[in-house]
Amino acid sequence: MSGVTMRGVFPILVTPFDEQDRVDVDSLQSLVSFLLDHGVHGMGVALGSEVLRLTEAERVLVTQTVVQQVKGRVPVVVNTSGAGTWQALHYSRLAEENGAAALMLTAPSFMAPDAAGIRSYFRHVSDSVSLPIFIQDVAQQHIDAGLACEIAEESAWVRYIKVESAPTTLMVGETVRKAGDLLTVFGGAGGDYFVEELRRGSQGTMPGCSIPGAFVEVWDRYQEGDRTEAVQTFYERILPVNRLCSQGWGAFFYVHKEILRCRGVIASAKVRDPFVPPDAMTQREVQALITARFV
Questions:
Q1: Fewer CB near the last or first residue (10 Å), C or N of the chain?
Q2: What is the pLDDT of residue 157?
């Protein structure tokens, strides 16, 4: 799929765990099928998949499981970031060997390199693989539009950017204007600003995975020119869930997993430690959303 420009709704999968803290392969396969049934255009294994809490063997298991369940129907994007270049190279090669359609990398944030180091990091990975690469711009290591363009000019496989740094909508608009044909711009951050990003030229989003049908509906209506209905769907079906998810990473993982559990998609809402569960009020608010059929 490397010759086709990726666009649309690419939810980031959660990683289901059983009560013994093992990757629940059956639930993961069920989740992939659930997303495909709702018409997503791609999917990702990334930070929202608790990928930083997976062992190397578990990363391979998750990638293999997702790729095998997808069967080539949509692209699978795998985050292969590392604290250093050699680690990112290793994870990137593993993802390519295991069938990923594209890679996504954040720049190292611990002992963070300067701009030249960031360009080198992406260039080395690009020179070592044959898959499209997403730059992932995050608050911990912001990559502005100018630097992103420099990276793309030097790195043949860097063709996309997922913009998540605040103020997100302004950053998306600036990147679209400056990148031109160099980079295809996606939004992220759970899809909190999906509609605003579309207005500014974003070509897709990588949201959470518990309400894929709502995101696909917004995308379809927006592409068809029915902007009013797209906005209404966003505010009625997406925003209530995203507001609960935005109360920290713990809430993000819990809310999406609990919605999926209640919908019968995964067996458990378990989140890997360290994890502080949302308070009782937030848990009741999640159940209220589910009962009200918002999701």
A1: N
A2: 98
